[in-house]
Amino acid sequence: MTDRILTINAGSSSIKLALFAATPMLPMLVRGQIEGIGAAPRLVLRAPDGTVLDQHAIEPARVSDHASALDALLASLAPHLGRDLVAAVGHRVVHGGATFVAPIAVGDTVMSALRALEPLAPLHQPHNLAGIEAARRAFPSALQVACFDTAFHRTQPWVSDTYALPRAYYERGVRRYGFHGLSYESVMARLALDAPDVARGRLVLAHLGNGASLCAVSGSRAQATTMGFSPLDGLPMGTRTGQIDPGVLLYLMTEDGLDAAGLADLLNRRSGMLGLSGLSNDVRTLEAAGTAEASGALDYFVAHTVREIGGLAATLGGLDGLVFSGGIGENAWRLRARIVEALGFLGVDLDVAANRRSDPVVSIPGSRVVARIVPADEEAAIARHTAAFARSERP
Ligand code: ADP
User: For the chain, which residues make up each domain, given as ranges?
Assistant: First the structure.
């Protein structure tokens, strides 16, 4: 019998879960997810190499919320768990506010503190917390650990952390929290193993997926990031605007009478590459479409990503490494080539063939700035935090 560590990533209509052996190398044993909670739920369980172990649709009435979804996933996981004990459950929590700068064990007091942060991330935090509640019921004696997407950025200096509002707003929590922190932690951990010299340098980490952000790192510490108070700021994304003049919002409120709900819908769901293309938020679809609007959306994504990377390189006083992750960063070689080539003036030299193959290193040998691809592995980051916590709690 070996202790197991479970990680849970609960979104609005999905739960992703992964099971690890609590041994020093923390090998992943199995991972699974349910999508379409409350609508058309579908469960998939996979081996670490991606082989499908179980896949089936579930009657919507049986999986109507996070608790029943977790039950269904655990039932499918049971043969892989056997008589082993889930000693700790690690959770992805999008917002830790200004207080939570590191993972923390969740009891009733912490749960209340996390609930108080819901207004800061209304689209994500309630679902993350529903996942914790479900896990507390399913594993009452296991340690529950919350791991935060904001925590990685808490080392950034005040000038990166604040807005130029009256100071009282910073004090009451209107700050640039930044997100994708667990992805960045996993990238830095991998880089420290594969390329320790690069990991110690001045880096821009580019998490480019449906949600997209950049993080400037030096001395392995976060210095600035493109997402801010919410995950809306910075780069253009699949359906989110990214950076926008707040004057546009004032104009739409005054001229069109848009209220908070209307603006939230426009900025979060109808903008970005979907809004610009009028077609899709998906880079593969846009690349295949070849229409002027689809190309324009991709051009906008490349131009603004280049501009923001340039800004962060200035913040760092120069650049030693550029690291791509996320669905676009890891796979969309055409966009990656355009971004790296536009940044040639910073000293990064693209290896065209390596980039086409999406190799781990996509700059030529001798390029002053190294460009690499490091797949994000948020589950591994959560498992590492949770295992460390479980070890430190042991009498
Ligand atoms: P999320 O933020 O939802 O986790 P992902 O990291 O999965 O998103 O990234 C999704 C994006 O990655 C989509 O725009 C998708 O088109 C893009 N993508 C994935 N694979 C490829 C590929 N082979 N070529 C181009 N784009 C890709």
Answer: 3-148, 196-373
Does this chain's domain 3-148 share its CATH topology with 196-373?
yes
pLDDT averaged over the chain? 95
**Tens-digit pLDDT profile for residues 306-330:** 999 999 999 999 999 999 999 999 9
User: Are the C-beta atoms of 354 and 362 separated by less than 8 Å?
Assistant: yes
Strand, helix or coil at 366?
coil
Helices (H), the chain: 66-81, 108-116, 125-138, 158-161, 167-171, 181-194, 196-199, 246-256, 260-269, 272-277, 283-289, 292-316, 326-331, 333-342, 352-356, 378-393
The CA 301 to ligand 1 mean position distance, Å, reads: 13
Please tell me the CATH superfamily of domain 196-373, with its number: ATPase, nucleotide binding domain (3.30.420.40)
The pLDDT of residue 394 is 64
CATH class, range 3-148? alpha beta
Question: What is the Å distance from ligand 1's center to 183 Cα?
Answer: 15
> Quick one: which atom of ligand 1 is closest to the CA of 281?
14
Show the 3-state SS of 11-74. Answer: CCCEEEEEEEECCCCCCEEEEEEEECCCCCCEEEEECCCCCEEEEEECCHHHCCCHHHHHHHHH
Q: So which residues are the catalytic ones?
A: 149
- pLDDT per position as a tens digit, 193-210: 999 999 999 999 999 999
Is pTM beyond 0.70? Reply is yes
Q: State residue 13's pLDDT score.
A: 83
Point out the residues of the chain with pLDDT beneath 70. Answer: 1, 394-395
Q: Which residues lie with the beta carbon below 6 Å from any ligand 1 atom?
A: 209-211, 238, 282-284, 326-328, 331-332
